[in-house]
Amino acid sequence: MPQSNETHYDFSQEELLICVISRLLKGIEHVACGVSSPIPGSAALLQRKLSGGSTRVTILLSENLQFLNDGVTELFDCAAQGRIGAFFLSGGQIDGKGNINLVGVGDYPQHKARWSGSFGSGFLYFVVPRVILFREEHTRRTMVETVDFISAPGLSEPGVYRPGGPYALVTSLGHFSFDKKRGGFCLETIHPDHSLEEIQDNTGFDFTIADGLKETPVPEPELLELLRGQIAEEVADPYPKFAKVVWGV
Question: Hey, what domains does the chain have and what are their CATH numbers?
């Protein structure tokens, strides 16, 4: 069982997840985020502050947080040239091999439910070195044994050129790393007020458990101060609704 943190400060789930993801971005020179990624985007901005500005952040459609002249097309060019170190992907379904499904539920093409589509996920999954999978909902509906449709594969056959791929999975229950050699996830930490049994009950795929499994560190007071001040103001540019709901900005 994980060891519990002795002190719990007053923080929201969003703030906890932002801090979890921010730690996973340490050492990255350039982080890019999509238009619907307020928690990852906030984490990237927090890491930029903690790095003293050495981490560069690009958030699509932001007025002040992107340098792109040609939007998504230029983002793909940067990724292909190795100029993006981390990106975030999600999925209506994520399975134990790191495959993601952004298309729909059921047999293709007669889906029972249809989602927005894969867009460039397959490309970015192959070329960005540190892809962090993020999905708040952690249930057997989202964390499945096998996705119904592969929008982007977590693994490739030997000999396939692939500098990128899954690095971690962060959900409302815990943080997993991805072992490319084994081809699966490993549970690294469990978020406060949750348990290993809860994660096992709500996960449709098998995963390993890290030696010395611990509770996810809670946000420190100085990080919460940063989030609720400078970061909240910056986040209000690309994600105004999120900033208002979470921080009242």
Answer: 13-96+121-144+153-247 (3.40.1080.10)
Q: How far is CA 125 from CA 119, 120, 156, 210, 220, in A?
A: 11, 9, 11, 25, 32
- Residues 168/151, Cβ–Cβ less than 8 Å: no
Could you tell me the sign of the dihedral formed by the alpha carbons of 242, 243, 248, 249, in that order? negative
Taking only the tens place, the pLDDT of each residue in 118-150 is 989 999 999 999 999 999 999 999 999 999 999
The tokens describing 167, both together, are 């690095």
Q: Which residue matches tokens 């970015």?
A: 124
Residue position matching structure tokens 């009242």: 248
pTM over 0.85: yes
